[in-house]
Predict the structure.
Amino acid sequence: MKNAAKKITAALLVVVMVFALAACSGGNGSKGPEGKYTLSSIEADGMKIDPAAMGMDTSSIYIQFNADGTGELSAMGETESFTWEGNKMTSQGETVEFQFSGNTVTVEDGGTKMIFTK
């Protein structure tokens, strides 16, 4: 009887630990970049550029990731829709990879890196 109680207690502890780890892992419980990210910096040709310091309205330059795998990119008054899966965005047959870490999305294409923050 003592042996069975120990096994049940151990199993319950394992279940509690798994739920605790799952609760701590995702912040908002999301596994993807869902949300709106505004442009915070640009890196090109070895130079880091602060768009706000250059007078750019960074609130109008953003990437919006929706939970359903769709999104939009808005810049300079133009908005383009895209689909995303994993770390790839696809629009009009072109696919661009991005990196997602915490509250930052980084898009690198053609030697230019754009960093967006939530």
Observations:
- The longest strand covers residues 35-44.
